[in-house]
Amino acid sequence: QHAFLAEESGFPMEKVLVIENGQVIEFDNGKMEIKDRIPGSYVFVDGSRVGEIGPSVVREREQLSQDGVVLVSLVLDRTGKLHEEIEIISRGFVYKHDEDDLMEQTRQKVADIVRKTQGNLHNDLVKSIRSFLYSKTKKRPVVLATINFL
């Protein structure tokens, strides 16, 4: 892509060199020559930290950037029944004009899960909603759930 840009800008292709990170180019008497490669890798900066970002954090951030996040918040009474309306917030997941109907369907799915779950509600909720949203959108948002009891 950079070579194409150089050519469009008027550079003759014989004077354009496409290299990879770490490759050394030596210029001597108007000639350029590729030399040995210097070992290196990417260094990530995260706030005030440099180089401390692990692969799992990078994967999570890639997923967030591509598929967004959906937060499901519930308030249950002592018997485990819904006490308040289910709150669903999404960011970077679907376009606003597509969101209302999908979020209403998701609320219905959450209510069904709350009624039917016998085991770990949080895990069942996250897995089921993740699967449901994928079936509807072919996207895999990060699904977070908060369950508060009165």
Q: Mean pLDDT across all residues, rounded?
A: 90
Residue share in β-strands: 25-35%
- Number of separate domains: 2
What is the N-to-C order of secondary-structure elements (H for helix, E for strand)? HEEEEHEEHHE
Strand order of the largest sheet: 6-5-7
Alpha-carbon distance between the two ends: 58 Å
Mind summarizing the main beta sheet? 3 strands, mixed
Textual characterization of the structure:
The structure is a single chain. The chain is α+β, with helices and mostly antiparallel strands. The chain folds into two domains: 2-37, no CATH class; 67-149, Ubiquitin-like (UB roll) (Roll), CATH 3.10.20. It has four helices and seven strands. The protein has helices at 2-8, 55-67, 96-116, 121-137; strands spanning 23-28, 31-37, 45-46, 49-50, 69-76, 87-91, 142-149. The chain has a three-stranded mixed β-sheet with strand order 6-5-7. The protein has a two-stranded antiparallel sheet with strand order 1-2. A hairpin with a 2-residue loop joins β1 (23-28) and β2 (31-37). The longest helix is centred in the C-terminal third of the chain and has 21 residues, at 96-116. The relative contact order is 0.13. The model has no long low-confidence stretch (mean pLDDT 90).
